[in-house]
Structure formats: C-alpha cells, structure tokens
Amino acid sequence: MTLRLSDTAPNFQIATTTGNIDFHQWAGDSWVFFFSHPADFTPVCTTEMGRTAQLASEFTARNVKPLGLSTDSVGEHLKWIEDVNATQNTTLRFPIVADEDRKIAELYDMIHPGQSETAAVRSVFIIDPQMKIRLTMTYPMSVGRNFTEILRVIDALQLGDKHRVATPADWTPGAKVIIPPSIGNDQAKDLFPQGWDEIRPYLRMTQV
Asked: Which of 14, 27, 32, 45 is catalytic?
C-alpha cells in the first residue's frame, strides 16, 4: 500500500509498551510522530529512541505524540527500554508498537525488501489531528534521523496551518515566511497587515 501526502493515516489496533491502543483514538486531537525501527537492541535505534525520549518536552509543546514501531514483542521492547534509559540518560515514556506479524509495517509500507525482508526501515510519518499524513521521510537502516529537522518541519507545518504561509529553503522558527501566490494582494492586506517585501510578484516575504 502506498501512502501519499494528505491521505488519511490508516487506523489499527495493536499492543504497545503502554497497553493496547486504537491508533486514531489514541492520537485524539494531537499531531503524531510515527516512526519505525529495524529492531530492538540495535545501536542506531537505541540512540533514536533515546533522543525521542529526551525531546519529550519539545514534542509536548507542539501537541505531538511520538509513537515508535519495530517488529519485536512487547516483552523485548520493555527490556530494550531499560537499555535505552541507561545508555542515553533518559526516561522513555512514549509507546512502542509491537508489530511481530508485520501487519502495521506492511500497512504503512515500512518493509523495503532491498534493505530487509522482515525488518522495518526508518520511516517517518507526521500526522495531523485530522489524521491526515502531512509529511513522510524514509531513512536507510544505517543512518540515524535528524531530530532537529523533524521538529523544524512540524513547526513549519503548524505555522503554515495557522497563518496560511509557506516556508522557504532552510527556514527556521522566527525567520521570514512566504505568502503563497494563491493569496492575492488584496486578501494579503487583510491577512498580513504587517506588510511584506515583494521580491517578485510570486515571491512575497513577510514576518509572522
């Protein structure tokens, strides 16, 4: 199954390290950072799980719930969490899906046979409160994710939703944003009373 941007994230019921969940119900009115891992007790995955736990307050501030997944059991996950906490100096509290039969990994196209026939690659899904997929990223098994970028794109998506803006290359919070060409100047005057710099008719920069 190929999932594309703006598709509804498929629902599922599954066991996790914090109990059984119905995905859509568990997500509620939050954003979700849904991310997969090849296996428990592996080095790159351990650092990524630890980093997600360390950033708990950053995710909470953005109304984002992290949800991990690998094709191991709840028991294995719980033992691994002890290692994550000890080696990464953190306390991991978010749920990790136990996808032993790979149903969720297959549903979300996380199994890439060129990498592994059984283990999930490092997939990322950013899902909004309407359960729409807003961003996807896929990393190979050997490359850890950039969590600064994950937080940045969440900030960009949320800012765009709030102010009807787009973000330029290498945007970071606080930098100028773009007024989309679909918004004419008359409407822009109401939406952006602070004004804008018109570099080209199609490239208008403003501060929000």
From this structure: 45
